[in-house]
């Protein structure tokens, strides 16, 4: 059984609540969120946060400052300057929703690192599927958040023969990236 002490940074396993321990009772732990709200939880519902989730990425060595790059830097990427054939534009792109709720029935017991790995592995499999099946466009819906998943996706895309750019703003907002898969390698 995990022991908690006053001042520990903790996260709730089945919710998006984080805070500091302000009181330890035999059957419950009282935490206070950054908003000043107090909640009581059973000890088995909490986990101590020992390190920043930003430092848990195995896919890159991006610093915290790089993760917080403004959206305007990402929007600078444009669509490819040429289209190999006209039917590419008429064919709807394959959409892949990377929200964790779409990838698994329950994220209970998964920490942010496990969820990010599942999302990146799913994206990797979908890109490889598109390459094998000659699907020219994929839209990855990743959400806005703090930009961690988006940064990891950009790093992943650089390993494939693809161009990527912000997806249609009217349809997806800022939370999606469109990938154009080149079917014939550049020479």
What can you tell me about this protein's structure?
The chain has helices at residues 64-67, 71-75, 87-90, 100-103, 112-132, 148-157, 169-172; strands spanning 9-12, 18-24, 29-32, 38-41, 46-48, 94-97, 137-141, 162-166, 176-181. The chain has two domains: 9-48, SH3 type barrels, CATH 2.30.30; 53-181, Ribosomal Protein S8, Chain: A, domain 1. Strand 1 (9-12) and strand 2 form a beta hairpin. By secondary structure, it is of the alpha+beta class. The strands form two sheets. A five-stranded antiparallel sheet has the order 4-3-2-1-5, with no helix packed on it. It has seven helices and nine strands; from the N terminus they run βββββαααβααβαβαβ.
Sum this structure up briefly.
By secondary structure, the chain is of the alpha+beta class. The chain has seven helices and nine strands. The strands form two sheets. It has a five-stranded antiparallel sheet with strand order 4-3-2-1-5, with no helix packed on it.
Order of helices and strands: EEEEEHHHEHHEHEHE
Helix/strand class: alpha+beta
Main sheet attributes: strand count, strand direction, barrel closure: 5 strands, antiparallel
CATH architecture of the largest domain, by name, is 2-Layer Sandwich
Compute the number of structural domains. 2
Radius of gyration: 20 Å
How would the blueprint of this fold be written?
Blueprint: E1 9-12, E2 18-24, E3 29-32, E4 38-41, E5 46-48, H1 64-67, H2 71-75, H3 87-90, E6 94-97, H4 100-103, H5 112-132, E7 137-141, H6 148-157, E8 162-166, H7 169-172, E9 176-181
Parallel strand pairs: 6-7
Antiparallel strand pairs: 1-2, 1-5, 2-3, 3-4, 7-9, 8-9
